[in-house]
Specification:
Layout lengths: L1 H4 L3 H27 L6 H43 L3 E3 L2 E3 L1 H18 L3 H17 L1 H9 L9 E10 L3 H14 L4 E8 L3 E8 L6 H12 L4 E10 L2
Helix pairs in contact: 2-3, 2-4, 2-5, 3-4, 4-5
Length: about 240
């Protein structure tokens, strides 16, 4: 029987060590995620690490290093689909990217364990825990820092609503005053409304000085036939 013929105590012990290392380290990574109340917590990360280790170990048992290399490619793609499942889009906000990246790292750590590289697996688990723990204060510091509009990259739009009969004159003034302020226009469009028109000018640059753009918009708001003028920004892709 093949089951008996393939029995090798040393290989089985090696598999036990590989799976044990993957499970313990995956549990450590998952415990941190569980403590943070993330979508994918302790069990998910532990099982991802264990599964990756088992796949790589099986590939090595069957075909040596070549088999492990082939299995690694499928593990990476498979975990990619699993990580996509924890990413949630809520309006313009996206949640779960860090959790998905942690799952991906857990899989790589498990692959190290399955490939009989326990030291590398321990090192990677340590770096993952360090990244998720010690980088949090830095993230909070950056998020709380005052926003400098001149250092951000965004899409800026100037919107001016005015009389239909003054459409061309208002459009020319928007172009002239923005270019005079060194804010070239990338695109300009007109939206018809009930009794007036809204002209939207998209700037060609990705950073502005808010005080200067405020002054331009205020000057446009004082034009004859203009009922409203404002500007806005959104995050660029």
């Amino acid at each position: 029987m093949n089951a008996i013929a393939n029995f090798d105590g040393a290989e089985i012990l090696n598999t036990v060590v590989s799976l044990g290392v993957a499970l313990v380290l995956g549990t450590a990574i998952g415990a941190e995620r569980q403590y943070r109340q993330r979508t994918a917590g302790l069990r998910t990360n532990a099982l991802v690490a264990l599964g990756a280790s088992a796949f790589v170990d099986l590939g090595m048992r069957l075909m040596g290093n070549q088999g492990a290399t082939q299995v690694l490619a499928y593990v990476a793609s498979g975990v990619g689909f699993l990580g996509a499942g924890v990413i949630i889009k809520e309006g313009t906000n996206i949640r779960g990217l860090n959790t998905a990246a942690t799952i991906w790292c857990s899989a790589v750590m498990g692959a190290f364990a399955g490939a009989d590289r326990p030291i590398e697996a321990v090192l990677l688990a340590g770096f993952v825990l360090a990244g998720n723990t010690f980088l949090r204060p830095l993230v909070h510091l950056i998020e709380r820092a005052p926003i400098d509009e001149s250092a951000t990259e965004a899409v800026y739009e100037v919107r001016v609503a005015g009389s239909e009969t003054r459409r061309d004159a208002i459009r020319d003034q928007i172009i002239e005053r923005l270019e005079a302020a060194a804010y070239p226009i990338q695109d300009i469009e007109e939206n018809e409304r009930d009794d007036d028109v809204e002209i939207v000018a998209t700037l060609a640059i990705s950073s502005v000085t808010s005080e200067q753009l405020d002054a331009v918009v205020e000057s446009l708001a004082r034009l004859d036939g203009v009922s409203h003028a404002t500007w806005s920004s959104r995050i660029s892709d």
